[in-house]
């Protein structure tokens, strides 16, 4: 069944979630972050994701901005930086201005030129996603931005993946789902999507019942994978 629709996770897939800590560390106001930026970024992302899973399991849903703040507060404390409110606010402000990975505009342009539907399917709240898409300048290359807020539960719940077929009227087998999260790619594969895991860090494959169809180092070859 040919691919008609390419759907992307947002944070870590199209947008570089480490960019906020990296940029803050380069600013003269926060020299104490320089040695901790990479660790802080990793812990922030890990806790952010862990809180989405725990909230989904327990039915304690909240907006993604809340888990983003909660994850940052945990990471700042873990790195011994919890006593700097200016740093906390700067990191949160920068999260609304995350850089897109450099190959993103050309990749999305190639998909649109091929006549494919393109969309984001993200845990992010609508306002966060709108800000990220606007800052990256890729709005014209996306047919829609789908948020879990319309179903009130985080990925990998099947109700989130249902949003794609509801929006585009396509069969599961016509969707190529792309994520930088191995668990997300696995969950989407179990749902029935064709999947690509963008494994920029070269991590091992998650030990789950499902595996992604493709494992990539970046997004450059996505248009080739979507060809009939």
Give your account of this protein's structure.
The protein is α/β, with parallel strands linked by helices and 228 residues long. It has nine helices and six strands. The protein has helices spanning 19-25, 37-58, 64-78, 85-95, 104-113, 126-136, 158-168, 182-191, 222-225, and strands at residues 5-8, 117-122, 144-147, 175-179, 194-198, 214-216. It has a six-stranded parallel β-sheet with strand order 3-2-1-4-5-6, with helices on both faces. The mean pLDDT is 97.
Alpha-beta classification: alpha/beta
Distance between the termini: 8 Å
CATH class of the largest domain: Alpha Beta
Strand content: 5-15%
Low-confidence stretches: none
How many alpha or pi helices? 9
Here the CATH topology of the largest domain equals Rossmann fold
Main β sheet profile: 6 strands, parallel
For the record, what is the CATH homologous superfamily label of the largest domain? HAD superfamily/HAD-like
> How many β strands by DSSP?
6
Strands of the biggest beta sheet: in what spatial order?
3-2-1-4-5-6
Number of domains: 2
Q: Indicate the percent of residues in helices.
A: 40-55%
Any guess at the CATH architecture of the largest domain? 3-Layer(aba) Sandwich
Order of helices and strands: EHHHHHEHEHEHEEH
Shape label: globular
Radius of gyration: 17 Å
Mean pLDDT: 97
Task: Record keyword descriptors for this entry.
alpha/beta, Rossmann fold, DNA polymerase, domain 1, 2 domains, globular
Briefly summarize what is shown.
This protein has about 230 residues and is α/β, with parallel strands linked by helices. The chain folds into 2 domains: about 5-15 and about 100-225, HAD superfamily/HAD-like (Rossmann fold), CATH 3.40.50.1000; about 20-95, Putative phosphatase, domain 2 (DNA polymerase, domain 1). The chain has helices at about 20-25, 35-60, 65-80, 85-95, 105-115, 125-135, 160-170, 180-190, 220-225, and strands at about 5-10, 115-120, 145, 175-180, 195-200, 215.
